[in-house]
Amino acid sequence: MLLKSLVFIGGVAMTAARVQFMGINIAGFEFGCQIDGSCPTTSVTPPLSVLGGGDGAGQMQHFMNEDQMNIFPVSWQFLVNNKLGGTLDSTNFGKYELWKYDQLMQSCLFTGAYCAIDLHNFARFNGNIIGQSSSGPSDAQFVDLWTQLATKYKSNTKVVFGLMNEPHDVNTVAWASTVQLAVTAIRNAGASTQMILLPGNNFTSAATSVSNGSNAALIKVTNPDGSTDGLILDIHKYLDVDNSGTHADCTTDNISDAFSLVAAFLRASGRQVIVDFCAQNTFLNQNSDVFLGYIAWGAGSFATSYTLSLTPSKQNGQFIDNALASHVIYHRINISPHFCISWNFIDNHDSISLRNRRCEFGNSICINRITDFWTCNLGVTYFYGDYEIPTSASVPPQLANGARMEEISRGFIAVTGAITVDALLR
């Protein structure tokens, strides 16, 4: 499993009880990219159903209750139609219309989530390292691309600029200088407040980001005014047996040899981070003063048979999460059947405030009828085995598994059957 971490460079807030951001990569525009930075545009499978790919827009609508940030990998070649140093291609990018990559961005922005552009070229263009090869691409060409992107999205504060996916085998100090040039260009283009993701060397590995000097070099990158507001370190980590991301099972949480090291560095530097999934989620939530969240890989145009697929299936017109997404990413669990009666209530239009609960949850609850959903707000945190149930959860009156929550009569509401809620691993 891939850990995609984002390290926020700014003030540290010690009050958070869980990570702030969760999200999923909506992949397809980067399909075919190799680690040498070659990305044949003929391999692109846009995660847009109107173009024959995955239903990225529908998936984001499905994920929207959990996701606060989504990332959209795309190749440099696709954006400029294979013309290094060229302008954004009006057909592929949609410079003047909502089409292809920009259509996906707009679909994400419509949900209210943060939406990240993720250049998927491994700090290269067709085999040559940015700013470190006599045959190009030059720093100026890299900066020009990000200037164009920033100019287009400067007015939307929820667009995030992911400068590069997984640089590797680069000169760390020289790469940090390239990153600085791109940050300065983005800010000077008018994108003054948006988050910018700063990737380090060695595939942005969490295990080596401290030891190889990537973090130390990148925390020196600043905005033109000398501040570091909105600048975020981008860190990844797979959790399978050989850290390759080719196996379905998470066999290590990488806490002792990766995330604890990153956490110590962040606290010493007064910085923060975002990461993704498997058993280390507990560690991230316990250290949410420095870990902002996690972004999982991946959905979009990935087939449901792909080892790391988080692509939901569709049954009877409804998206259904697979076991990996449901258990590992969102920690949805079934609570055993309850039958709750006898509350005092205050009827306020569609809202009924209930007191003196006489059921297993034990505390006050407010049930609001919103279209087809009852929203249940627990008075205190409820623990169910190894899970922590958040203070709010939504369930429809009739779930597929037969669970019901309904008002039988005034002041008499019954809850029967297993209710699925989102939860956090303790």
TrEMBL record:
EC id: 3.2.1.4
Signal peptide positions (record): 1-17
SUPFAM superfamilies with a match to the protein in the record: (Trans)glycosidases (SSF51445)
UniProt entry keywords in alphabetical sequence: Glycosidase, Hydrolase, Signal
Pfam families: Cellulase (PF00150)
Domain named Glycoside hydrolase family: residues: 56-275
Protein's name according to its UniProt entry: cellulase
Species for this entry: Lachnellula cervina
Organism phylogeny: Eukaryota, Fungi, Dikarya, Ascomycota, Pezizomycotina
Gene from which this protein is expressed: egl2_0
